[in-house]
Write a structure and sequence with these properties.
elongated; about 110 residues; about 75% helix
């Protein structure tokens, strides 16, 4: 009874490339993160929403979907930051690589 968000798991190219134990560990960690976030979100929602606002099923689906989106957006943000950092340092890496090559092979 998980929401539409659940289908988005593994949409990042590097995640799709994972296989075997690495993929299993990634999925296990991802699910643990979602479960923890879902519990925290559910606690906040229960304190915020008037009792009876949502059915138990709707409440569960909402908290899991919010947790999934939060966790996946966090992961995507990290990936975007890493990509930007790689682009920032790429010229220096190329310069150092060229320097090292010419130093070793004059």
């Amino acid at each position: 009874m998980r929401g539409e968000v659940r289908a988005q798991s593994g949409t990042q190219p590097w995640v799709r490339a994972l296989t075997g134990r690495d993929r299993a560990e990634y999925e296990q960690t991802r699910q643990e993160n979602i479960d923890e976030l879902s519990a925290a979100i559910a606690g906040k929602l229960r304190k915020t929403l008037p009792e009876g606002t949502l059915s138990d099923d709707a409440f569960q689906t909402l908290s899991v979907d919010l947790a999934t989106v939060t966790r996946d957006n966090f992961e995507q943000g990290i990936q975007m930051g890493m990509h930007a950092e790689r682009q920032r340092i790429q010229p220096e890496l190329e310069r150092l690589s060229s320097f090292q090559y010419h130093t070793i092979n004059p």
